[in-house]
Specification:
Layout lengths: L7 E3 L8 H13 L32 H5 L4 E6 L16 H6 L4 H4 L22 H15 L4 E6 L4 H17 L4 E6 L8 H12 L12 E3 L9 H15 L3 E3 L2 E2 L2 H8 L5 E4 L10 H11 L3 E6 L4 E2 L4 E2 L6 H12 L4 E4 L20 H15 L9 E6 L16 E2 L9 E8 L3 E7 L2 E7 L2 E8 L5 E7 L2 E7 L16 E4 L8
Parallel strand pairs: 2-3, 2-12, 3-4, 5-6, 7-8, 8-9, 9-12, 11-14
Antiparallel strand pairs: 1-17, 10-11, 13-15, 13-21, 15-18, 16-17, 16-19, 19-20
Helix pairs in contact: 5-6, 7-8, 11-12
Length: 505
């Protein structure tokens, strides 16, 4: 699917915004609280049906049964440190608010970089009873509603709280949808286990009926940074699973450097994958990796990412608004990937989340559903509802921060940093797009289909409205204003979709 830039012309000083858009701005100004934006609480039960009258997507998402009829699978990488809630308290006073989103959290542990996180899961209200399981069920429902086949769950520890969270997630997934798969992904940057111990843990978790297995019954084991251990070490793990635990396996290692390790790992692997790129200009190697997997006769699991900004490491990649998301999905489609891994569902410490979040709402998950449909069905879905998506940072990339955190640096090899607003339209027919970015006003026309338009970032809010025949068909307002004097650096792209009601992102 080609994404074209539409012709435009500036409309300096244009006023007279339509009353619908003005009302939407007013609503958003009321719901966004200063600093954290915790002016709302998401519904406790995040099923597929939105609270708005219209469907939030620009197309009709096929039924789950049709999507699952495809051999092509889509997993989202689940990171256990960041569930919907850590303490079941109101969002404005919960652990995220007190300790992760502030520089003073956890006794000042994160003061050097202005706080551990810049975003969080969509807030949920306190619940009675087994709230942890209720939250995992909600996350599974959200993923299923987006067309995702399962979670690839990061195994950070083989015991303790992270192991317990994996087990709760697997149990919750069975309750919600027995067909939702859990792929086991030992995190080899975090684990320090011998082959026998890891094999035992994989066998125990893999005994669950929704652990991801191939049609022939083999348990899929897909370690992150597999090259942390040698092929011989992994052979011991797989042999132990087979001989001691009667568990056949399909080994699908995820590499940070596939090219250097493909030859050595090929004899014991069913497939290959990589963790992938986060910059829109560094995606070309995906085709090379897919070809390398085919050369060795292996399945290829393509990573698909949104962005990457890590305050605690002081680095970020230039994602180019949604260019990395759209580009990596297009590679998965064009290069014939067998599986896709969304990296990640919820690693907020790296700003890579697809899951609905406070600052991005459902923007990236909704966009992904469009490309997922093409990936799984082989046909681009027909756009039947106009929808506009806005993405931008809330500060220039080089704006000095007033707080204690030092400046973040661009990761080597990334595209140059840029300060842009992207207006991404999905239109069922030609339309006029009216955009305000701070004090800049633009009006342009676009044909039907998917079109991306870039405008320079300006202080203030961004609004976009699509009209056809004098009638507004979709509109969006960014929930967080751009400032040139931020308290801390926050270099993730924020997103908003016109497909969701004003009160819920």
């Amino acid at each position: 699917m080609q994404n074209h830039t539409a012709p435009r012309h500036a409309v300096p000083g244009r006023g007279g915004r339509r009353t619908g858009l003005a009302a939407l701005v007013g609503i958003l100004l009321l719901i966004v609280a200063a600093g954290t934006g915790l002016g709302f609480t998401a519904a406790d039960d995040d099923r597929a049906a939105p609270s708005a009258a219209r469907d939030p997507l620009p197309f009709d998402l096929p039924a789950t049964e049709r999507l699952r009829a495809s051999d092509r699978l889509v997993f989202a990488h689940y990171f256990t440190p960041y569930p919907l809630s850590l303490d079941n308290r109101p969002a404005d006073e919960d652990y995220y608010a007190r300790n992760y989103l502030t520089a003073d959290g956890e006794n000042g542990k994160h003061a050097a970089y202005g706080g551990l996180l810049r975003d969080r899961p969509l807030p949920v209200g306190p619940q009675q009873g087994d709230w942890r399981s209720a939250h995992y069920r909600q996350e599974v429902r959200t993923a299923v509603a987006a067309g995702i086949d399962g979670f690839s769950v990061d195994l950070l520890s083989l015991d303790g709280p992270h192991r317990e969270r994996v087990q709760l997630l697997m149990s919750a997934a069975r309750e919600v949808d027995p067909g939702f798969r859990i792929m086991l992904m030992p995190d080899m940057k975090a684990l320090d286990a011998d082959p026998a111990t890891l094999a035992r843990a994989l066998a125990e978790l893999g005994a669950a009926p929704n652990a991801h297995r191939l049609d022939d019954g083999r348990l899929v084991v897909s370690p992150f940074k597999a090259e942390e251990k040698t092929p011989g070490w992994w052979r011991q793990v797989l042999d132990t699973l087979r001989t001691r635990h009667d568990t056949g396996t399909a080994f699908v290692p995820v590499f940070l450097d596939l090219t250097s390790h493909a030859e050595a790992f090929a004899p014991l692997s069913h497939g290959f994958s990589t963790w992938g790129s986060r910059s829109h200009t560094t995606l070309g190697h995906y085709g090379e990796h897919a070809a390398l997997a085919r050369e060795h006769g292996k399945l290829w699991m393509q990573p698909v990412a949104v962005q990457d900004a890590r305050p605690n490491q002081g680095v970020f990649d230039e994602a180019g608004n949604t260019a990395t998301l759209r580009g990596s999905w297009n590679h998965a489609i064009e290069d014939g990937a067998d599986w896709v891994q969304l990296t990640t569902w919820n690693d907020y410490s790296e700003s890579t989340q697809f899951a609905p979040s406070l600052h991005n709402g459902h923007t990236y998950l909704d966009l992904s559903s469009y490309y997922l449909t093409r990936f799984k069905t082989g046909s681009w879905p027909r756009i039947v509802r106009d929808t506009v998506y806005l993405t931008h940072r809330i500060q220039p990339h080089d704006a000095p921060a007033a707080g204690r955190a030092g400046p973040m640096r661009l990761r080597p090899g990334s595209a140059p940093a840029r300060d842009t607003v992207e207006v991404l339209t999905f239109l069922a027919g030609p339309g006029a797009v009216d955009v305000t970015v701070g004090d800049l006003h633009e009006r342009y026309t676009v044909p039907e289909g998917v079109r991306a338009e870039l405008l320079p970032l300006r202080p203030g809010r961004t609004t976009a409205e699509v009209t056809r025949g004098g009638t507004t068909t979709t509109e969006a307002v960014t929930r967080f204003a751009v400032t040139e004097k931020p308290e801390v650096q926050d270099l993730q792209y924020y997103g908003v979709t016109g497909g969701r009601p004003a009160g819920r992102p």
